[in-house]
């Protein structure tokens, strides 16, 4: 998450509160995210989908929402985002994948 958000006011409340309370740590965390993002050949849309997949796999509803929100802003098609949840079925299981699908749809349906 830190690879693209520098302004703590753009963060969900818990992360924003942390960034405001510990700005030096947040700056280092953001710098790490940027370095990781720039450290390889993967294109931006694929990076977003990988990050969404990691969020799905860890069952982090907040991170799924964050990556879906940004993906939609970046022009990623809703069906592409849903496909990430479908691809997760054999790995994390049907119930967990359906939870992720519902989190993805939370933002697609807005």
UniProtKB/TrEMBL annotation:
Q: What are the protein's UniProt keywords? A: Oxidoreductase, Peroxidase
Tagged with keyword Secreted: no
Domain Carboxymuconolactone decarboxylase-like stretches: 24-105
- Name the coiled-coil region(s): none
The answer to whether keyword Oxidoreductase applies is: yes
Q: Which domain of life is it from?
A: Archaea
A GO term for molecular function: peroxiredoxin activity
Q: Which Pfam families match?
A: CMD
- Name of the molecule in the record: Alkylhydroperoxidase AhpD family core domain-containing protein
To which species is this protein native? Answer: Natronobacterium gregoryi
């Amino acid at each position: 998450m830190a690879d693209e958000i520098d302004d703590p006011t753009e963060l969900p409340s818990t992360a924003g509160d942390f960034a405001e309370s510990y700005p030096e740590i947040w700056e280092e965390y953001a710098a790490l995210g940027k370095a990781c993002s720039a450290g390889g050949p993967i294109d931006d849309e694929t990076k977003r989908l990988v990050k969404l997949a990691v969020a799905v796999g860890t069952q982090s509803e907040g991170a799924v929402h964050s990556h879906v929100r940004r993906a939609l802003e970046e022009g990623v098609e809703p069906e592409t985002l849903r496909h990430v949840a479908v691809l997760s079925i054999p790995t994390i299981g049907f119930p967990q994948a359906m939870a992720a699908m519902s989190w993805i749809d939370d933002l697609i349906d807005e």
